[in-house]
Amino acid sequence: MLDLDREDLDAVFSRAAARAAAELDSTRSGAVFSSAPSAARLHALLDEPLPADGEPLEDVLEACDAVLAEGRRTAPGFFGYVQSPPTPVGVIADLLASAADQNVTAWRSAPAAVHVERLTLRWLAQLVGFDDDAAGLMVSGGSAANLTALLLAIRSRAAPDVDRRALTVYISEEGHFSVAKAADALGLSVRRVPVDASWRLDVSALRDAVAGDARAGLRPLCVVASAGTTATGAVDPLDGAADVAAEHRLWFHVDGAYGAPAAAVPAQSDQFRGMARADSLAIDAHKWLYVPVDCSALLVHDVSVSALAFGARAGDYVRVLEAEHDEAFAFWDHGLELSRRFRALKLWMTLRHYGVRRLAEAIEHDIAMAAHLAALVEQSSEFELLSPPSLSICTFRHVPATLAADDLDAHNERLLAALQRDGRVYLSNAVVDGHFALRACVTNYRTTTADIERTVDVLCKLGADLVPLS
Description:
about 475 residues; alpha/beta; Aspartate Aminotransferase, domain 1; Aspartate Aminotransferase, domain 2; 2 domains; 14 helices
């Protein structure tokens, strides 16, 4: 009833492959937006009544082409958010995973997919030096990973009948807001800890906050350290944070959603000392390992911890009957999801094809591009560097000589809006030391020094157009 005949199927796949190749080409060169984004144009292009009888496949494919043409491309000049472009291998793997449509719930349901996911998690942990025998599970993104980690903290460090409002999670002022969202959803309290001059968690302030809360009758629960903040790329002092967590028997979670893959780069590995001491670690492969969204992981050393948090709650219809250890494994005993797509295939294929060395070289290249941008900013009288490059992030602002200091924040906000509408390159924003910052995050292995220099040129031209004539 819903099938296509083989000739039509082959034709659709051929056209889809051509469109996918065109999308990949757009990540090699070209603009971030082919035209300025417009909600009005999207309404005019796409808003139609719900189809009662459907329409010819050719028309649907043409509409799909139009949707993709209006999309944002992860081009070499896209430095806005933390999202790497997918490699061709990752795109192929995502298509195959969708075609296979494995529901990766338990070994008995999807034996090969479950085995690949568990293997891929161990490989990922080895890649970043976390644990050669790590366990965990794939999730949609860092937000889901951080939420799951806090649930593990509650189950392993708090009594079942505890008042969760007294349980306190500690994270730096620069830590990702998804941690606070997760804590709020779980009814936990959050303590924001000051940062040092390098925007890293202040370990002395953390120690004082934990001790003070304990004296006040609160229940310190979990320390969350960042392995690469999204604003400046700062990596918290992980060993120091681990020491505080150990002293007070707190769960220690590292949010490495963005930065953890950089631990595979030999020249970067020292700043990740202490990451292996974490009870749990979040990593987004779609952020800096060049696979398509969504592909994130929560890693743990001890699989029994996640089993304690999520196991023994399944309904009888999914009760596992197998006795052999691996064949009895079920991911529903280790996380929130029951239905789960085969996320691991694209990371497994990526790791197999490229290997650790090539991936580390790509990450190192991105770091070098951020350093090149920082050097150009420092050499220019038109810009001011607001934070030294850290990992692959650089923050700065446009400082026209004719503008007063009090007008710079508003000017840079206007400049960013103009840049994003222009579409040739794309940055996002941050607040650094109270200043509105232009933020560039390089996670595209195809970005070249020419792309970086073009970004500075575009900013100069757009910025000059926004400065009032004196």
